[in-house]
Amino acid sequence: MVVRCGALARFGMLLDVGRFVQNTGRMTFWMALFVLAVFLAALSRPVFSFSEHISGAAPGTTLAGQSPSQSSPQGSAAPAAQQAPPSQATPPPTSPTTPGAATQTPPTPPRAGLNIVVLDPAHGGTDLGARGTGGIHESDIVLEFAAQVRTALESQGFQVLQTRQANANPSFDDRSAMANAQRGAIFVTLHIASTGTPGTARVYVMNDMAPAADATGLIPWDRAQAPFVSLSRKLGDQVQSLLAQRFKGSPASAQTASVRQLRTTAAPAIAVEVSSVTVEDRAQLDHMAPGVADAIARGAAVFRPSYVVPTNPGERP
Ligand SMILES: [Zn+2]
């Protein structure tokens, strides 16, 4: 029994050694296969650069920028594709004061819908605007109208920016610049006329302007409205038709006039003028405010789908 047991034990040992050799062989085989797989994977993607994972630098570029041979003078139309994409920390240079100049900027995020209205209570500060016999000042009344117009626009889902909140008097250019700095906004300037039948309201848009761009492709500041004239008319007609329903004696469609504030505005832009400061009792004007506010807000809402918002601030439609 002992011998047999010893023989069995030896046999068992041999079996164990055999299994060990067999297992080691399998391990070696799988390890070799793994190494081969890693090698093949490396071959299929020969370049791995950490620069692809920092600051959005494209492969082959350095964070320091281009070599001197690639640099170009400021302001020239260097192809953006040859340069490293801009990082988040340095937004593309845009100039809201030069409509059309923004076409040189690299691609920006997807187009947003028309959602901003720049609301301009005209005059203000030392500029009182039209004055009625009863001490009524246009600059005061438009500010009060603006508050109601703002509420009506916000209830239609618009974000409203006001060119003035109080008795200040920003320049024409400052007011236009607020609209021109937005990526797609409409501009509404509010006035109270010294003429016209009391209880009526009119919308004015710029008359047709000469072709906008000069030889450089830039639109001069004082013709910023040129590319937007037809859109302005569309917006103006919408608002005017709603005003006409509300205030009998008002025109059926928008009228054209050379309005200084509209000329420098690179956005669909209208002037809304309410008659008039000559009323005996200013309550007559106050009663018109809700109707004017509603017409502007609903007109803007109807106009919204017909305006494809430009990609860059100040860009032509
Ligand atoms: Zn005015």
Strand order of the largest sheet: 2-1-3-6-4-5
Tally of individual domains: 2
The helix/strand class is alpha/beta
Unique ligands: zinc ion
Alpha-carbon distance between the two ends? 103 Å
Range of helix content = 25-40%
Question: Ranges with pLDDT <50 over ≥5 residues?
Answer: 1-15, 42-103
Broad shape: elongated
How does this structure look, described?
By secondary structure, the protein is of the alpha/beta class. It has 2 domains: 42 residues; 191 residues, Zn-dependent exopeptidases (Aminopeptidase), CATH 3.40.630. Helices cover 35% and strands 9% of the residues. It contains 7 helices and 6 strands; from the N terminus they run αβαβαββαβαβαα. The chain has a 6-stranded mixed beta sheet, with helices on both faces. α2 crosses α7 and α4 packs across α7. The longest helix has 43 residues. The N terminus is likely disordered. Bound molecules: zinc ion. The site of zinc ion has 6 residues, from loops.
What's the short version?
The chain is built from seven helices and six strands.
